[in-house]
């Protein structure tokens, strides 16, 4: 399994620092954060020189570039235009996927229609530059659960569009994340992973987002991920640590990797043993 870190975890530090410690903690790849106000490790205005610097930095560390997260309100035209510029930068970086949420409001049909229209526009823009748009299923937004994600994929049948699955969003709205993985398996092209307290609506503080410290059924989710044959990247996405000291941030990444690596190894061993029986 290809496992990386979203650089939003290192939002208080520059990209060079993030790459150094992502490599040190044993991950194979990186998801670049392009989130205004949180972590903008790749900008929508990055020059070709800056793009090459990023490629060199990541390549020299022996890491892969898996994706870009560019969370924003896509119902605002200026934000959609920014997203399109991020798509262009991702393509120049050789990054295959950009992920953004749907915006809108859950159970608001007018906003949902607006979101679907915006997603279609962005899927077309992603396809035009040769990348994929992974729509992140997100608590509180128009596309927030299994039902709305399936509706989106039925209404926007664009080859550049897929889903970004995050169990902490699906689980907090009451869906079984394992059942959701099964239902959405044909559409998932990227995955975010972390822990949280599923019984509360807000994402827990960073220490409880560390894999194994919350109530997200990560072992079951990992087993289902292997079972459905998912071959894409899995990116650790932990938010809220921008003000943390660097040793704390590195500890979050390291502890999460150790826990998740063990879960994936056990799930793969279990799957192989079942096949050989």
Automatic annotation (TrEMBL):
<protein>
    <submittedName>
        <fullName>Sugar phosphate isomerase/epimerase</fullName>
    </submittedName>
</protein>
<feature type="domain" description="Xylose isomerase-like TIM barrel">
    <location>
        <begin position="22"/>
        <end position="262"/>
    </location>
</feature>
<dbReference type="InterPro" id="IPR013022">
    <property type="entry name" value="Xyl_isomerase-like_TIM-brl"/>
</dbReference>
<dbReference type="Pfam" id="PF01261">
    <property type="entry name" value="AP_endonuc_2"/>
</dbReference>
<dbReference type="InterPro" id="IPR050312">
    <property type="entry name" value="IolE/XylAMocC-like"/>
</dbReference>
<keyword id="KW-0413">Isomerase</keyword>
<dbReference type="InterPro" id="IPR036237">
    <property type="entry name" value="Xyl_isomerase-like_sf"/>
</dbReference>
<dbReference type="GO" id="GO:0016853">
    <property type="term" value="F:isomerase activity"/>
</dbReference>
């Amino acid at each position: 399994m290809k496992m990386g870190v979203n650089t939003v975890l290192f939002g208080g530090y520059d990209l060079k620092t993030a790459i150094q410690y992502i490599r040190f903690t044993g991950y194979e790849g990186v998801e670049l954060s392009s989130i205004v106000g949180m972590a903008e490790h790749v900008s929508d205005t990055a020059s070709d020189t800056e793009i090459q610097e990023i490629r060199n930095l990541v390549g020299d560390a022996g890491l892969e570039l898996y994706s870009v997260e560019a969370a924003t309100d896509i119902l605002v035209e200026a934000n959609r235009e920014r997203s399109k510029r991020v798509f262009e930068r991702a393509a120049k970086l050789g990054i295959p996927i950009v992920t953004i949420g749907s915006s809108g409001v859950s159970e608001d049909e007018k906003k949902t229609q607006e979101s679907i229209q915006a997603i279609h526009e962005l899927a077309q823009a992603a396809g035009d530059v040769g990348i994929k748009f992974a729509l992140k299923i997100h608590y509180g937004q128009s596309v927030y659960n299994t039902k709305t994600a399936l509706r989106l994929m039925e209404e926007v049948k664009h080859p550049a569009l897929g889903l970004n699955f995050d169990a902490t969003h699906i689980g907090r709205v009451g869906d079984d994340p394992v059942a959701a993985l099964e239902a959405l398996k044909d559409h998932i092209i990227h995955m975010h992973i972390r822990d949280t307290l599923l019984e509360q609506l807000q994402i827990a503080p960073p220490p409880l987002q560390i894999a194994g410290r919350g109530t997200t059924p990560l072992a079951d989710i990992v087993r289902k991920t292997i079972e459905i044959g998912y071959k894409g990247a899995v990116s650790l996405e932990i938010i809220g640590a921008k003000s943390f000291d660097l040793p704390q941030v590195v500890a979050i990444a390291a502890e999460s990797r150790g826990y998740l690596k063990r879960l994936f190894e056990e799930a793969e061993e279990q799957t192989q043993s079942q096949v050989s029986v």
